[in-house]
Each structure stands twice: as structure tokens, then as C-alpha cells.
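Continuing the series of single-chain predictions for the mutant panel. This is the parent chain; the variants come on the following pages.
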Amino acid sequence: MKIAIVTGKDEGPTKLNAFDNALSDAGIGDVNLIKVSSMLAGNAEIVDLPALKPGAMVNCVLSEITSDVFGEEITAAVAVAIGEGLGCVVETTGRDKNPDELEGEARQMVEYMMDKRGEKIKNLIVESSTATVRKTASVVASVVYVTDDIIYD
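Parent structure:
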């Protein structure tokens, strides 16, 4: 199993446009995202996001938050823990919350999930995106499940 971890942020004239722009900034704006739960196969491989076929149906774990409150700081984060037998992903968001603290919470949640399953963590990655709202902003962090059928040739 291959996964890519991506983040993005942007503004737009509406909440929907800001979200769409943030997805595009993350490299996943031209595909159909299918939100899945938080499990990975063991020994999942983290890769760079390849070019995706426009309109492809793409499985992902998605963390996203959008705001139109001027000056508000918004953060979206994902944490990935990979073991030999399986892996887990968590997503979280925050408003006016220290991004480092939010990443720490994500780390703790994914460590708990792995511990609860008796799985030793071999690799743990936390990625986040933060923006301060000027008009209408959105941030995203996502784990994209990369399969051959979604890659643009």
C-alpha cells in the first residue's frame, strides 16, 4: 500500500471556493475525494503525490476547516503511524489553537490507536497546515491512498 501526505491552504470569495482552492494547493483539487476511515495496511509506503487523473475517485483521510472570521487562526492536521501489521491515521482541526499543541494531540491519538491494537510503531509522521483568516480561508491536511488506477500517465 502506498500513501501520500499532503497539505494545502488558500482563501476564496466563499467558503466553498476557499475549500476548493485549498484542495488545489494540496494537489488534490481536480479529483473526487472519498473519505475513508483511519486504517492502513502494515508497512505502508509513504510516497510523493503523483499526478492524478482528473476526475479520478480517490480514497483519502481528510482533515479540513474553513472560516470567515477575520484574524482567526485555523489548523488542519493528520498523524500517520505505521507498523508491521497495520497502520493508523488520525485527523484533527483547531481554531485559534497552537499548531504545535494540535500536532501533539494528533500524535497522542494515533499512538493510542496503535497501542490499543498491540502494534509497535515503526514510523510516525504528523503534518499540518495553518492559516490566519483575512476574508474566507480554508486549510486541509490529507492522507491519499495512491493506487495505479488514479495515477495520470
